[in-house]
Write a structure and sequence with these properties.
Chain A: This is Dynein axonemal intermediate chain 4. Chain A: Its main location: cytoplasm. Chain A: One of its GO terms (cellular component) is dynein axonemal particle. Chain A: GO terms for molecular function: dynein heavy chain binding; dynein light chain binding. The complex is a heterodimer of chains A (661) and B (96). With 661 residues, chain A is an alpha+beta fold. Chain A is built from twelve helices and 28 strands. A four-stranded antiparallel β-sheet of chain A has the order 1-28-27-26, with helices on one face. In chain A, strand 16 and strand 17 form a beta hairpin. Chain A is elongated and about 160 Å long. Chain B has two helices and five strands. A five-stranded antiparallel β-sheet of chain B has the order 2-1-5-4-3, covered by helices on one side. The longest helix of chain B has 25 residues. Chain B is globular and about 35 Å long. Chain B starts with a helix and ends with a strand. The interface between A and B is large, with 33 and 39 residues.
Amino acid sequence: ENNDVTPQPLHQAGLGAEQANRFLVEELSAGSASDQTTFTGNFGKQFSFFVELLLPDEKWKKDLVKEQVTQALLKVMKDIFITETDTISLLEIAPAILLRTSPCFVYRERNKQYEEVCRKRISNEKYVDRAMQTLNEASKNKQIQNNLMLMVDAGLHVLFIVKKMKPNNYAETFVESSRSAERMCCFSQTFSLSVISSCSLKDVDAVRTGLNTQSDLELIRLSEKFQYSLLLMERSVLRNSFQCQLASYRQLPLVKPKEVEEGEGRTETSCSPALECLWRFSCELSIGCSVSCMAWNQKNPDLLAVGYGESDSRNQEPGLVCCWSIKNPRWPERIIHCDSAVTTLDFSANSPGQLAVGMCDGSIAVYNVQIHCFPILHIGPVWQLRWNKQELSFTGEEKVEALFSVGADGRICKWFIINGGLDCTDLMKLKRSNNTQRKTGQKPEKMAECGLSALTPGLCFDFHPIDSNIYLTGTWEGNIHKCSCSNSHQFLETYKKHFCPVNWITWCPFHPDVFLSCSSDSTIQLWKQDCPRPLLSFSSNHGEVCEVKWSPRQATVFGAVYNGHLEVWDLNSSFLDPVIVQPAAPGLKMTSFLFASLTDCVLVGDSYGQVTVYQMQNLRVGECRQVQHTNISDKCLNIWGLKGEVRSKLEFKLLKVLYFL
Amino acid sequence: MADVDETLKRIESHKGVIGTILVNGDGIPVRTTLDNSTTSQYARLLRSFTALASSAVRDVDPQNDLTFVRIRSKKHEIMVAPENNNLLIVIQNPCE
């Protein structure tokens, strides 16, 4: 049939695509749009017009180029008029309105024909299904932003009731997990699957065992064995970090994994004696408190007790005693809080767990360090003076140990344990000497303040290492008295040389007759027992000497600590100068020091609360020289045997020193 | 109790310590500072290892008992302290 209803194209397909955009620019006649056929005719006209315009493109361009060449033309003002075109209607189909009465059968016929065509279309070969391509515009990417989706892991609360299996089955346990802390692991998921798979319902009794991980933790914590394991673990962890320092402390050869062993090489590079810092004992509790005294435990050579407290300050701050172990430089084994500043302490030799602590306010406390530090005996202040400084020592007196103390009130007391308390007897009263040559300027004021008659404060004392009846004591005046425990009224001897308070006195551990004393007049004196004059004097301009101690291993070595530095003397090499001088760190004052008994180490306490462990290097003992034997030296050797690592040649050298004058 | 916590914290904060694990008698980690998978692995492996070490010590001398195990490897050191059936495991890198 010739009734072709395919719509006709709006424009001619022959023209190029770029010109399709332009057909709206020019005016198009709109009036005749109702008639479709004439519409296309108009288009044709217009397009032919376009063609005329657009074909000579090159000409246009040339014209354009020519125009641009002359710059004068550019400056010319050109008026451009922009107007709106008329409305262009592309398609207009006027509706046809028919009344029913009008002869519409024509249209009805047409409709019927159309319907038939549609019906026949399916089976008719004339009509073919064909796909159409719609116009696909260029796709473009667009970015959007979205909130981050938070993923949260939810734990499981799983509680299984597992029925008890027959003995040859294995699955019994399960887990009830809780999500309380992050540290708790959730194992329920992996566990649950395996448990379910092996669970069987044919069992006799249903047993429900509940494992609560929280209660487990509590149980573990409370057990003593766990605390012991913690202690071991902490020590092992620390030992790993401090491996090198501890090895050199114990004088083990250092093994370096990569480099060649430098154990001996070091001594060749630096030949002069020096102190090498190994580590520091310090913890947050002790920082800021000044170290006042240190003492080694008699039985366990790794245990060190350190007392903290400012004994010079007028305000009574609470003191602290820490028992440190070599194996743990980071945290003390025991911590004891005291009421007032600690001035002195000492371990007992008979019962090594007992530590006696003397304090600034005059009280003495004895603590048992093995059990967690409860004071077993505590007495109130006995002395009426407001300030005193004591020194305690345990001596083996007829195999009975007693506690002795000397105080600022001038009394040396011996303490007994009676009925759970300490009671004392006066051993000696330190009377003032009537020597008017002495200028101890403070004496008259002190007497007036004290209100006590003719007693001078005692600052230090030391028992003879062999004859425990004899002791020396140093006083505020600068006198040193040799006393006996059996005679409480008279001094056996008095040694006068110092004119300032004697701070420390110590017998030589290798020679029975020699002792050292140091005082605030910045001198150290070496005395022999029956000589009223000192044998040797070591003086310096560095201020008061706080402590002086003999080395427990080498007979001719002793150390002295000043506020600003530490000196180690070796009488074998020089009388005039110390062998090692170790200055204190800036801003710190050294307050106390101690020799280590088994190794060549020195511990120094300072005003910041740190105890630094130094190792003495290159402290050579020197070659032996020919010296005469004397009877005294023989007696020494017989009485003592060999203490530590004393060699007989050292004894000779010491005698050489003594008979120098 | 507070001492125990303090000591544990001190150990954990010490230089070089990578992590600590506390395992109870059933092999379940009760307290740990490492992530789950590592913790379970360590707990499982070290439990059997410690049992083996303990049985070895006891076989040689029935009155003896295992107190501490240290495994030193190239990268770090694993220390295990067994008590009753619990294990305290600390992993430390000693040289840094």
